[in-house]
Amino acid sequence: MILIAGGEKLKSSLISFAEYSFSYFLREQPTLTDIELSISEGEFVIITGASGSGKSTIAYSVLGLIPFFYSGDIKGKSLYKNKDISEVQLSEHSKNIGYIPQRIDNSFVTPYVFSELAFPLEYMEKMDELEIIKKLESHSLKLNTSDLLTRKIHELSEGEKQLVSFSSATINNPDVIIADEPLANLDRKNKKLILSMFKDFHNSGKTLIITTHDYKTYLPIATRLIHISGGRIQDDTTIQKQEKEYAKVDFEKQFLNIKENMKVQTPEDVAIEIENLSFRYSDNFHLQNISFSIQKGNVIGIIGDNGSGKTTLLKILCGLLEPHSGKVSIFGEPINNISWNELTKKIGVVFQDPDKQFFESTVKDEIALISNNLGHEYHGTEISSNLIECGLENYDSYNPHSLSYGEKRRLVFLVSNHHQPDIILIDEITVGMDQQNKTWIKDKISELKEDNKTIIIISHDWDWLGGIVDSIIYLNEGRIASFLSAETFNNELLKNALGKNLKEGEEK
């Protein structure tokens, strides 16, 4: 076990908390209670726990976002190099710490990738133009992001934005790196790349603090695991060093050779049909010749690398983007002939960023919003029942924006199907969720399928996805590379899992 900070040990720590408690403004219950924690220079610390347990709040406290950005009631001390973080200038403190936030869109300060990465070099390091260009080129080569430098940030996929956020946080070589679910939205190739970078940073003497639900992914390279529950540290354990190589993840390439039939046998039961669809953001990205149909009551998964076009396709399906060519039909009717009111009745959507979907000041009003706008009858008892079921019963009068990221994801899911649409489009729903809530979402999707709802799910969480889909569409560089049955997809996952287990067994 790791020795918890206290007394003289607190003074020798790089980062430390002493009897630290924090309550967010207007929240009755504290989010953190009596935290005693000491982190030494060069440690690689994983902080895990259920949604809303206080993981991100610890990160905010180390960063100085509490109290300078998030207001509330602080008790006790949080220190960096023996200085009270609440008394240090945030501009000075931020020079020492690189931060990869969970809500990455809120962290960007410029419109282009190049200027976003140049900003910390110009602002913090005072580099001249030639030095900045040289640094950008070398850093982008390491992360395989050179082709993103000239792109507009708002045109990137969420996974590509995640890579830009990682690049921005690490480009000025900070002493400490804090990351909140840094692998969220990344495909398997880029997850492996980021994990390798974390390992390199740690080996160079940097201090890393990662808050995540997926702690097992980091066990081969981290040195310490902290479990937090209800705002208190429940366990604090040293991890035995495991120098294992990660299992190869290039088995996605096998999908390119799989062409299975997704033709619908009964046209009258077709929920969604796409014919020869093309869409172009710029010369850097376009969807090409997309054609498929989905039968009513099916659950379809869409997978593919970051930037392959998954989210763009979802936005076209819900009418937010108009294809440059081709046809999209919902229950046999061209989508451009359907009014927004009718389209809202038919389709519910869960986007990757839940904050962009909130419009009301309380959780219960948010759930009822679409039903109200459509003139549907609903009952308060039904909303209360839904909130209890997903563990949000104590938050009905809270502002949706005040919830944790995982709590927001659950709320958006409730909002998406409360008005009982026939089609539900879901983009990376499991990001920021613990295993219990992933299971709850899976069970709810199964219930919706039993009600003959049609569901399309975008996800990098393949193991979770494999347990609920009828078929898989694999996108690659804006084209459909493969159609896979659930059986084929799960067989590939099983073979990969068996190969990984055999490899680890040999190493042991």
Structure report:
- The chain has helices at 8-11, 55-63, 65-68, 90-93, 113-123, 129-143, 158-170, 188-203, 310-317, 340-346, 363-374, 380-389, 405-418, 435-450, 462-466, 486-507, and strands at residues 15-24, 32-39, 44-48, 72-80, 83-84, 97-100, 176-180, 207-211, 224-229, 232-238, 270-282, 285-295, 299-304, 325-330, 333-334, 347-350, 423-427, 454-458, 471-476, 479-485.
- The protein is built from 16 helices and 20 strands.
- The model is unreliable at 1-11, 242-249 and 498-508 (pLDDT under 50).
- The protein has a 6-stranded mixed sheet with strand order 6-7-8-3-9-10, sandwiched between helices. Strands 16-17-18-13-19-20 form a 6-stranded mixed sheet, with helices on both faces. A 4-stranded antiparallel sheet has the order 2-1-4-5.
- The chain folds into 2 domains: 8-238, P-loop containing nucleotide triphosphate hydrolases (Rossmann fold, 3-Layer(aba) Sandwich), CATH 3.40.50.300; 251-504, 3-Layer(aba) Sandwich (Rossmann fold).
- The chain is globular.
- With 508 residues, the protein is an alpha/beta fold.
- The longest helix is centred in the last third of the chain and has 22 residues, at 486-507.
- A hairpin with a 2-residue loop joins strand 4 and strand 5.
- Helix 5 (113-123) crosses helix 6 (129-143).
How is the secondary structure organized here?
Layout: H1 8-11, E1 15-24, E2 32-39, E3 44-48, H2 55-63, H3 65-68, E4 72-80, E5 83-84, H4 90-93, E6 97-100, H5 113-123, H6 129-143, H7 158-170, E7 176-180, H8 188-203, E8 207-211, E9 224-229, E10 232-238, E11 270-282, E12 285-295, E13 299-304, H9 310-317, E14 325-330, E15 333-334, H10 340-346, E16 347-350, H11 363-374, H12 380-389, H13 405-418, E17 423-427, H14 435-450, E18 454-458, H15 462-466, E19 471-476, E20 479-485, H16 486-507
Parallel strand pairs: 3-8, 3-9, 6-7, 7-8, 13-18, 13-19, 16-17, 17-18
Antiparallel strand pairs: 1-2, 1-4, 4-5, 9-10, 11-12, 11-14, 14-15, 19-20
